[in-house]
Amino acid sequence: MTAGVAVSVGGAVVPTAPPRKIPLPPIRDELILFAAAPNEDGTPAWMIQDPVTNRFYRIGWLDFELLVHWADNDAASLVNTVNEQTPLNVTEDDVRALVKFLADNQLLRATNKADVMRMLGRAQMMKRSLFETVLHNYLFFRLPLLRPQAWLAALRPYLARINMPLVAALILAITLVGVYLVSRQWDVFTHTLVDNMTWKGMFGYGFALVFAKAMHEMGHALAATRYGVRVAHMGVAFLVMFPMLYTDTGESWRLRDSRQRLAIAAAGIAVELALAGIATLAWTLAPEGSFRNGMFFLATTSWVMTVLINASPFMRFDGYFIASDVLDLPNLHERSGALAKTWMRRTLLGFDDKWPEAFGDHKRRVLIGFALFTWVYRLTVITGIAITVYFYFFKLLGIALMLVEVIWFIGKPVMRELEVWKKRRTEIHASRKRWLAGIVLALLVLLLFPFSSRVSGHGWYHAQEQQTIHAPFPAQIVAMPAQKQFKAGDVLFVLDSSQLSIASGKSRQMAKAREAQIAGLLGLPDGESQRQSLNSQKAYYEAEEKMNEDERGRLTLRAPFDGELRDIDHGLAPGVWVKPREPLGVLVDHGQWVIDAYIAEADMGRLKVGQEVRAGLMANALSWASGRIESIDVSRTQVLPTTMLDANNGGPIPTVTEATKEGQERTQVVRDALYRVRIALDKPLPTHQASTVRVAIEGRAESVAAGFFRRVASIFIRESGF
């Protein structure tokens, strides 16, 4: 114990009390402290493992020395001991910071009622409400199914004997050969992908996905076992009710060698890539059959899922843990996010905040950029999850859950950061406030002022009078057109139908036979009653003959207006039979050309008849013509008038395949809600062919904000069924 010090007061010596010792709180006995990989600057590091929560905390040399000498009972003695036995310069502030860290993470032992009440209070503060619990659990929860440590430990001696470089080289060679052979038959490979877009194919893809993911998780488990890491459990995780396999390899942070942690994190992707490579080669060598189809499913599923999902470092999948191990930065998202928040506060508000961690300028910029991109990526993913939630449930509940997703996971973090800005607004310099006010004002002007008046769309340029000529029913060509220019009423094609000729002749003969029978009834006593029946039959056959002749008259195809006959099928000739509705040619009047444009439903409220339009050929960016809106349809377009507009044929408008009610015929239906707008041109475009065009209409001016809220309101009203 340190003795007191005598102080002279008014000539008298008054002894002072010795400084009061501050006892150190006891640390929990079950915590595990072990060495970790060195920090980026080469200084040693250690890990604290909490076996109750299975969490790991990384500490540095200073904290380690304090914990080693923690039994010194008080802070002053601890500081003296560490300073005497190590080259460190420790202060009581360092001790207080460590105590706070241990208390915040519940690593201290409760020794009295006050400690227990404090821990209960903290647990109560961290406890989620029923709403929060339901929200997070329906979004993501895990179901442990296996505790595989026993049989994995039995496999460890065999895993240690595997020559991994040799296996990797062999798999790489197999993959390269498979990719090369696929490139030699790429058309067959792509056509196989399209042909398998059926219910049976979807079942095959689902089975291949489950198998590949099971092997993926087994790769993590075997790699962890190889390096002595315990695999606590394996099971199924549900992300927005979508099942995903998982493996708990959280204890891999006990490994000092970052390359071993990297191997465990990358093992799943490595196994999937190996499966993809082997399946690719097997597909190229296997004969046609179920085995070849299975290899195709396995190859495509493994390649796509690995590249698009598992390799992404922006969500907590394998790519994230791989990036964390490569950079040796545990909790990469949280640490980079903290840097990005500090950067925003320093850059936008001029705060003099210290950086959360000391990194070099280049690495700090990389981490800030990574965090910003991660936020944008997560915004996209959360929006996708919100839309998925909407489609999973009935409309009104789907909209409600989607709003909860957006508000809770996007709006709440933004508002939390804005609250910090509001509390510290007195720290913002006046010049910075004026600068921020100018930016906000400029954004408000851009959002609220109706700058935009342009409504754009796509359509097709064609003659106003244009009609496809076709046969009304199966017939044989008798005469072909001799010229291209025709007047209204001129004969275009002469067709005939032997069936109609035979039917007409038969009806004529039957009518004559009834007439002869009527003549033979003259003078007979009961002839009058038979004559009425025969007259009725004769009238029926005469009407049938006239109907057949009228039908034959329809086979003489005439021009409905003046024009030029174009696009005549070269396979047509006298004697050739044609099907009903089969196009024989197109009659076009070149006197007046129009455009049928197709405009999105959201922009229809800004259009009216008479507005000016600019239109140009899609094939020639320099050819533009002016015109005006002539008419606007009141119902949406279901089927496109020409295949040149269909995106499946290289056009600008996407369509989807839809079966008829009978389920036998399939037609291409316009995917989006588009309305036809007829545009009359002041002068024709420099072409006499029907062509796809772009149109720009000077509609009613509308601000960005008004347009956005109108679109949201229309979608809400339409999809909620109001």
The poorly predicted ranges are 1-14
Q: What is the total number of structural domains?
A: 5
Mean pLDDT: 80
Count of DSSP strands: 22
Query: What is the molecular shape?
Result: elongated
Note the main sheet.
6 strands, antiparallel, barrel
Characterization of this structure:
The protein is α+β, with helices and mostly antiparallel strands and 722 residues long. The protein folds into 5 domains: 20-126; 140-329, no CATH class; 331-428, no CATH class; 455-461 and 583-720, Efflux pump adaptor protein, beta barrel domain (Elongation Factor Tu (Ef-tu), domain 3), CATH 2.40.30.170; 468-578, no CATH class. Helices cover 49% and strands 20% of the residues. The strands form 6 sheets. It has a 6-stranded antiparallel β-barrel. The chain has a 4-stranded antiparallel beta sheet with strand order 13-12-10-15. A 3-stranded antiparallel beta sheet has the order 3-4-5. The two termini are 81 Å apart. Residues 1-14 have low confidence and may be disordered.
Any chance you could write out the topology, listing elements then pairs?
Elements: E1 6-9, E2 12-15, E3 32-36, E4 45-50, E5 55-60, H1 61-68, H2 75-85, H3 92-104, H4 113-126, H5 130-139, E6 140-146, H6 149-160, H7 164-184, H8 186-195, H9 199-226, E7 234-239, E8 242-247, H10 258-285, H11 290-310, H12 318-327, H13 332-349, H14 361-392, H15 395-423, H16 430-448, E9 452-470, E10 475-479, E11 485-486, E12 491-496, H17 498-519, H18 527-554, E13 556-558, E14 563-566, E15 577-578, E16 583-600, E17 612-617, E18 624-632, E19 655-659, E20 666-670, E21 674-681, E22 691-702, H19 704-720
Antiparallel strand pairs: 1-2, 3-4, 4-5, 6-7, 7-8, 9-16, 9-22, 10-12, 10-15, 11-14, 12-13, 14-16, 16-21, 17-18, 17-22, 18-21, 19-20
Helix pairs in contact: 6-9, 7-10, 9-10, 9-11, 10-11, 10-12, 13-14, 14-15, 17-18
